[in-house]
Amino acid sequence: MPEEIELEMAKIQRLREVLVRRESELRFMMDDIQLCKDIMNLKQELQNLVAIPEKEKTKMQKQREDELIQKIHKLVQKRDFLVDDAEVERLREQEEDKEMAEFLRIKLKPLDKVTRSPASEFNI
């Protein structure tokens, strides 16, 4: 009986971990989408400025071009960091999954012996 309770607690903990992971994945996707939108908006503004012949650009327009390039660069770096962080998290989760599978395998073996009836051992 205590083994069954312990196993049930492990299953509940595992479910909680899966839900926390999913929430984390969704947050990553939302951040990624927002960064991509921001980058696209800045690129569009930059394209509009680049389309103006160099001789016709004001000093402010040239400064804005430089500003936009810097902002885009920072956002791309931020997105790269986010993607790298997500990959590290994915690898960590894979390792946790292996550990949990091994834990449950070890915990389930003794229960198999306890829950089997003598008749099932003889295929009756």
UniProtKB/TrEMBL annotation:
Q: Which residues form the BMERB domain?
A: 1-102
Query: What are the GO cellular component annotations?
Result: microtubule cytoskeleton
Could you tell me the superkingdom of the organism this chain comes from?
Eukaryota
Instruction: Tell me which Gene Ontology terms the entry assigns under biological process.
Output: negative regulation of microtubule depolymerization
Q: Which InterPro entries match?
A: BMERB, bMERB_dom
**PANTHER family noted in UniProt:** BMERB DOMAIN-CONTAINING PROTEIN 1, BMERB DOMAIN-CONTAINING PROTEIN 1-RELATED
Instruction: Quote the protein name from its UniProt record.
Output: BMERB domain containing 1
- Protein's organism: Chelonoidis abingdonii
Q: Which gene encodes it?
A: BMERB1
